């Protein structure tokens, strides 16, 4: 079996990732890479942060080489309108055009739904609460 080429998208701002590192915590992308390495070493993994990189060209010029995309978590939320979130939505739209296998986790799903023209409803009953109440 050939090595799979995966793109992991980091959703946090660089400042947030520095806060994680200073606290001894892995970034979301680092955690995903480590988790995948428990299953196989037959992966070529690139990490890209669309809200911190100056240009998407670094990835878009070779985006078709990726067999899949994993878009993980972030401390951002889709309800704030800022350039970093708009950049992530724009990058997800490019990913939709070029990568067929996408795993969107939490923040990644908010970005994917919004990029596809949908809305991620804001939860009003709190985190992990029973929605039947």
Could you report the average pLDDT, rounded to the nearest whole number? 90
Q: Order of strands across the biggest sheet? A: 2-1-3-4
Number of DSSP strand runs = 4
Largest sheet: 4 strands, parallel
Low-confidence stretches: none
Classified by CATH, the class is: Alpha Beta
Number of helical runs?
5
Q: How much of the residues is beta strand, in percent?
A: 5-15%
Helix content: 25-40%
- The secondary structure category is alpha/beta
- CATH homologous superfamily (4th level) name: Class I glutamine amidotransferase (GATase) domain
CATH architectural arrangement: 3-Layer(aba) Sandwich
Q: Termini separation (Å)?
A: 49 Å
Tally of individual domains: 1
**SSE string, helices as H and strands as E:** EHHEHEHEH
CATH fold-level label: Rossmann fold
Instruction: Name the shape in a single word.
Output: globular
Query: What is the radius of gyration?
Result: 15 Å
What order do the helices and strands come in, and which of them pair?
Layout: E1 4-9, H1 14-22, H2 28-37, E2 43-48, H3 57-60, E3 68-71, H4 83-98, E4 102-104, H5 107-115
Parallel strand pairs: 1-2, 1-3, 3-4
Helix pairs in contact: 4-5
Provide a descriptive summary of the structure in words.
The protein is α/β, with parallel strands linked by helices and 133 residues long. The chain has a single domain, classed as Class I glutamine amidotransferase (GATase) domain (Rossmann fold, 3-Layer(aba) Sandwich), CATH 3.40.50.880. The chain has helices at residues 14-22, 28-37, 57-60, 83-98, 107-115, and strands at residues 4-9, 43-48, 68-71, 102-104. The N and C termini lie far apart (49 Å).
